């Protein structure tokens, strides 16, 4: 089977953004509406408090919206948490799951990440499952072991490859200005695709979009996005300003 993987550029605002930041959403939407949008999917993941307002602004321009996390249960007594259905109801199409900041700050295990991905799928959302090694793990030569085991434990089996997105984010590259070499990125993405094949079933690996994340910015986007098996980016800091985010989108122009 031949798969066409449409590039996906996702902006993760993390815990940043008050209502005043909706002007940036407006600028992204205006910039994207005038761009050759057929080349890529564009996604913004603002904090949940801004999701519905951001959706009202950006969805008409063809920009997708996403959450940054969801609970593994569909509803219930979980004070402070957000269900996948709530995200969908507020206009989300995607949800980031298992980001390294949640794995570290909230002790999220692979099993919990998989349960959250399943909850997202059940609500009709596309989970963006995040994996990546720490600096110590890379220096110990364990990067592939760690990423392979995160994929095996976090990616729910039995789904069509276009229902799931994987994000490879080396933890040491997040917010540091450091990036792996294009050769390292190619090696890890190729490896991740092999492991996805094992997780999802024979022939399915080539259908999954694999995003690279970690210090992507306008000046390095074109080089990183041209690497084999890189199907887009998950961008943190450089997604907060519309100009930077749109400049990264221009990597596919
Ligand atoms: O989710 C996004 C990543 O953690 C990358 O963040 P960054 O672009 O600020 O390095």
UniProtKB/TrEMBL annotation:
Pfam family, one: TIM
SUPFAM superfamilies in alphabetical order: Triosephosphate isomerase (TIM)
Keyword Transmembrane helix annotated: no
Pathway assignment: Carbohydrate degradation; glycolysis; D-glyceraldehyde 3-phosphate from glycerone phosphate: step 1/1; Carbohydrate biosynthesis; gluconeogenesis; Carbohydrate metabolism; erythritol degradation
Catalyzed reaction equations: L-erythrulose 1-phosphate = D-erythrulose 4-phosphate; D-glyceraldehyde 3-phosphate = dihydroxyacetone phosphate
Residues at which substrate binds: 12-14, 175, 215, 236-237
PROSITE patterns in the record: TIM_1 (PS00171), TIM_2 (PS51440)
Alphabetical GO biological process terms: gluconeogenesis; glyceraldehyde-3-phosphate biosynthetic process; glycerol catabolic process; glycolytic process
Principal subcellular localisation of the protein: cytoplasm
Family label: Belongs to the triosephosphate isomerase family.
Protein name: Triosephosphate isomerase
Organism: Methylocystis heyeri
Chain's gene name: tpiA
């Amino acid at each position: 089977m031949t798969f066409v993987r449409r590039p996906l550029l996702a902006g993760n605002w993390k815990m940043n953004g008050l209502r005043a930041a909706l002007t940036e959403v407006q600028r992204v939407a205006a910039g994207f509406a005038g761009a050759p949008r057929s080349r890529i999917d564009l996604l913004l993941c603002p904090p949940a408090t801004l999701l519905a307002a951001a959706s009202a602004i950006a969805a008409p321009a063809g920009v997708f919206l996403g959450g940054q996390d969801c609970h593994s249960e569909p509803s219930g007594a979980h004070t402070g948490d957000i269900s996948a259905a709530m995200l969908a109801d507020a206009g989300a199409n995607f949800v980031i799951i298992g980001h390294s900041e949640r794995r570290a700050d909230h002790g999220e295990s692979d099993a919990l990440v998989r349960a959250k991905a399943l909850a997202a799928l059940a609500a009709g959302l596309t989970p963006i499952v995040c994996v990546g090694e720490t600096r110590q793990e890379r220096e110990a030569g364990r990067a592939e072991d760690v990423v392979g085991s995160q994929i095996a434990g976090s990616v729910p089996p039995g789904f069509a490859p276009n229902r799931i997105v994987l994000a490879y984010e080396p933890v040491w590259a997040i917010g540091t200005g450091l990036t792996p070499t294009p050769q390292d990125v190619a090696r890890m993405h190729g490896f991740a695709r092999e492991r996805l094949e094992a997780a999802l079933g024979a022939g399915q690996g080539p259908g999954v979009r694999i995003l690279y994340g970690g210090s992507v910015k306008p000046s390095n986007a074109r080089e990183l996005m041209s690497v084999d098996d890189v199907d887009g980016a998950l961008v943190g800091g450089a997604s907060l300003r519309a100009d930077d985010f749109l400049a990264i989108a221009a990597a596919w122009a």
